[in-house]
Design brief:
Blueprint: H1 2-21, E1 28-34, E2 37-42, E3 46-51, E4 68-74, H2 77-85, H3 87-90, E5 96-101, E6 110-113, H4 115-121, H5 127-135
Parallel strand pairs: 3-4, 4-5
Antiparallel strand pairs: 1-2, 2-3, 5-6
Length: 143
């Protein structure tokens, strides 16, 4: 039951976030939900958002190698550690972004990482410390 609540919170936050970002450009044609994804169709491209309150596997991303995709997840230490564990695979996906979100945070509500870009501009040895610093910029999501 808790996972459903987290999913719905993340979905609600995401839809408002997408709409707010498009408020001036007005490029969104439609936003729909299909099988755990929020799909934002813009005039010039389609963006897939996978809502994963808990990251346990990422094999589904293989089907989105040539698509613009974002993973929306709760800002938890478990999810941070999962991303670090999957880092090599994630860093291969050029159009992937990962949003760590806490809609209830009193500080920032999200932080974003682009593994492909991040892995090219930062030292591998500093990965964990760098991600930990970003993680701490948003309060940890508590169930």
């Amino acid at each position: 039951m808790e996972a459903i609540k987290e999913y719905l919170e993340l979905k609600e936050w995401l839809v408002l976030f997408i709409q707010h970002k498009d408020i001036f450009q007005k490029k969104i044609v439609k936003i729909e939900e299909k099988e755990g994804f929020v799909i934002a169709e813009y005039k010039d491209h389609t963006h897939y958002f996978a809502i994963l309150p808990k990251i346990t596997e990422i094999s589904f991303l293989d089907n989105y190698k040539d698509k613009q995709i974002s993973v929306i997840t709760c800002n938890t230490k478990d999810n941070l550690n999962a991303i670090i564990g999957f880092w090599q695979k994630l860093a291969e996906l050029q159009m992937l972004s990962i949003y760590f979100v806490n809609p209830h945070s009193n500080t920032d509500k999200k932080w974003i990482i682009y593994p492909f870009t991040h892995s090219r501009i930062s030292e591998h040895g500093a990965l964990k410390l760098g991600l930990q610093t970003l993680f701490e910029s948003v309060e940890e999501y508590k169930q």
